[in-house]
Amino acid sequence: MPELSRFFGIVIKMIYMDDEKHHKPHVHVYYGEYKASVAIDGELLAGSLPAKQLRMVSGWLALHEDELYRAWNHAVAGMPFDKISPLA
Predict the structure, then answer these.
(1) Which pLDDT tens digit goes with each residue over 50-87?
(2) E strand or H helix at 45, and its extent?
(3) Domain extents for the chain?
(4) 60 partner at 20 to 30 Å CA-CA among 23, 36, 42, 72?
(5) Entry's InterPro entries (predicted)?
(6) CB 39 within 8 A of CB 45
């Protein structure tokens, strides 16, 4: 599972050809023992994260929406995608 970004102990990854379970563009987020699937629009699809980290992820998703959709389109086609900076 390729890593998209990493910031403040949060790791964001995207899986190739991962469009069947949630049927929505999303990322996989890891923070300590927490794991979650979060839609690019910020909706928590599965798992859990502490409230502060979920807000940070949601803000990061909003800042990088165009890059994330581009990465998602590549990933579901099985093509490599670029990492995304943790900064705006």
Answers:
(1) 999 999 999 999 999 999 999 999 999 999 999 998 87
(2) strand 44-47
(3) 3-76
(4) 23
(5) DUF4160
(6) yes
